[in-house]
Specification:
The protein has one domain (about 10-40). The protein is elongated. The protein has strands at about 10-15, 20-30, 35-40. By secondary structure, the chain is an all-beta fold. The mean pLDDT is about 90. It has a three-stranded antiparallel β-sheet, with no helix packed on it.
């Protein structure tokens, strides 16, 4: 997974590379550095 840590919060849904189930990705960057990251499965 490639993340581009911009200066704002981003969230999107992506299929897991291992099990192919959807996961919600949330992350936040400051000054080009990743400062927060979370990935949660989406209940089906």
């Amino acid at each position: 997974m490639v993340l581009e840590p911009t200066s704002d919060t981003q969230a999107y849904i992506e299929d897991c590379e291992v099990c192919c189930n959807p996961i919600e990705i949330r992350f936040r960057g400051e000054g080009g550095e990743l400062v927060e990251f979370d990935a949660q499965p989406i209940e089906q």
